[in-house]
Amino acid sequence: MPIEKRKSHSARYRASLAQNIAENGFVVMPCSWCASQGLVCKMIARTKRCEACVRRGRSCDGSGIPLSSLDRILQEQRRIKDAERRAELELDESQRRLEEAQRELSEKLARLRRLRQQKEFLVEKGADMVARGLSTLDELEEVERQETPAMPSSQINDAVDAVDWGAVFGSVPGFPLVDPDSAGGTVPNFFDVPFFLFVLCFDVRGNLGVLWCWFEK
Fold first, then answer.
1. Which residues form a coiled coil (predicted)?
2. Do 28 and 67 form a contact (C-beta atoms < 8 A)?
3. Distance, CA of 194 to CA of 130 (rounded, Å)
């Protein structure tokens, strides 16, 4: 009889505890028994058995994780999954832009190399043309020197004698050219008239030129 009373007391305690769990507990992920029976699995803090397992007096393999926490976990998983998907899309876009930038960089580097090659070619071509031009100029000058001999001194004297000095200086006002014999042996005073300086110039071909200038006394 005392044993039956203890059992009855234990049964009442389990029933009271199970009722407390049912009223104050929170829904958790179902244990094996609740899952097999299609029951709502409830637990309270600091307990390791659900309502049904307490009522049955059996052990419980429930995790004790509240469904609300599970919902938050699931929501967080969905959020992370969405963020992961966006990150993948952004990565794909960044990779596409990077490949495009690398392709553009390669094209610009190739163009720069071509321009530098063209510049070097033109510099070499220009230097070659200048060298050839100078060589040709030297050859032409040498040919001209060979084709144009220097005028003999006799030809220069003949050219000087051929100049009508009376006509040259007679056309200059205030400076008549007078022969000393015809002037009674006297020579005009050059300092009583404008002072003239004339220079005889001969070019490389032997042509005679006359340059004169005068300054007032």
1. 73-125
2. yes
3. 52
Give the C-alpha separation, 217 to 215, whole Å. Answer: 6
Read off the pLDDT of residues 97-154 as tens digits, 9 standing for 90 and up: 999 999 999 999 999 999 999 998 888 888 887 777 777 777 777 777 776 665 555 6
> Which two tokens mark 72?
């938050």
Cβ(193)–Cβ(175) below 8 Å: yes
Length of the chain: 217
Q: Are 201 and 160 in contact (CB under 8 A)?
A: no
User: 0.70 exceeded by the pTM?
Assistant: no
Q: How many C-beta neighbours within 10 Å does residue 53 have?
A: 24
20 CB-near residues (< 8 Å, 6+ apart): 44
CA 43 – CA 28 distance, rounded (Å): 7
| pLDDT tens per residue, range 178-205 | 444 554 544 444 444 444 444 444 443 4
CB 42 within 8 A of CB 28: yes
Could you give the C-alpha distances from 29 to 45, 60, 147, 167, 174, in angstroms and in order?
Answer: 14, 12, 119, 139, 139
CB-CB contact of 53 with 40 (8 Å): no
Give me the residues paired with residue 198 across strands: 212
- Tokens representing 153 are 């001194």
Report the distance separating Cα 187 and Cα 166, nearest Å: 15
* Cβ–Cβ < 8 Å for 70, 29: yes
Q: Residues with Cβ < 8 Å from 51, sequence gap 6 or more?
A: 18, 21, 22, 25, 41, 42, 43
